[in-house]
Amino acid sequence: MSKPAYVQGTATDAPPVRVTIDDLRTHCAGVLDACGLPSEASHLVADSLVDAEARGISSHGVTRTRIYGERLRAGMINAAAEPHVVSTRTAALQVDADNAIGHVGALAGLDAATERAVETGIAAAGVHNSNHCGTLAYFTRRAAERGLVTMAMSTAPTTMVYFGGRSRAVGTNPISMSVPRPGHPPITVDMATSATARGKIILANQLGQSIPEGWAVDDAGRPTTDSAAALLGSVLPVGGAKGSGLAMMVELLCGALIADVTGDGIGDMYEDWTRPQRVSHLFIALDPDAWVGRDTFARHIDGFAERVHGLPPAEGFDGVLLPGEVEDRKLDAARTDGVQLSATVAADLDAMAELADYDGRLVVA
Predict the structure, then answer these.
(1) How many C-beta neighbours within 10 Å does residue 256 have?
(2) Domains plus CATH for the chain?
(3) 65 CB-side CA count, 13 A
(4) CA-to-CA distance for 232 and 18, rounded, in angstroms?
(5) Model confidence over 126-163: pLDDT tens digits?
(6) C-alpha angle 169/172/177, rounded to 5°?
(7) CA distances from 130 to 126, 161, 359 (A)
């Protein structure tokens, strides 16, 4: 299949639209279902995309509906995949995702790790033969809501330079961690090892916008604020050598150890239409009952959060927040006010619905 890797949009003065969470979820699930994904999987992916959008993480939000749908229609993803555990060794599990859409593969790994961790105290599940799975936080939060501390990481196609290099060599390899906080959303960190999630550059290009300095270089290794040039080039590691080192360790732990696939062995879902992605994920779940106990841990987390919130704020800040609280507040607001979408993204969702022969159209709140 030959197609442009990225479609560059133009900036528009058209006002944004608001769509209820339920309507947006229904629309995205309907499009994916029309592209051949079974209903249960369609709703899982749509829930992940809308969750990210409602939390203000538009780079991993509903704009991804198109690329997932296009890869499903092109046969690049196995819509009927049934991920399964292929090997176990006490607290270590290996899951073959069978080229499933990444969310389905990731959930299989998460479930395998959490179910075993309740028995053994700690468990790790590696997932191979998967695809892009959206935000890792969507999965680590699910486990934390079951009372488990959870860590996750994933490989990604080579779109980032290593510190000191000027050409693509490694993925933006994200990492997420969630800690349960009973009565409150989990404390969650989710970050790419790049200066920014590459999805933000893709979205900026779709909207016809430039990007900040320090995010990327062009294909000659020169700094750029042109989103189109950045997509042809490489993103930069966050924190220079530190982010570069983290990305390399995710590549080794999650790619080499779990799947024997790193670097150019991982396909780019936008640029490579000749093969599956072969992304791999790693989930590590810990049950507090194996250490201080869930009740003691929960009390400590409550006190810890109170101390953090009680810290004196720096100039220009209203207070010190826990990781994920900004996004949690945006989600709460979206539940009441709906999700705000740019006119460009809303139009693209309806265009994708038409392409997939899905009759539904966005219902603007």
Answers:
(1) 15
(2) 1-74+337-365 (1.10.1530.10), 84-194+237-294 (3.30.1370.60)
(3) 38
(4) 32
(5) 999 999 999 999 999 999 999 999 999 999 999 999 99
(6) 140
(7) 11, 23, 30
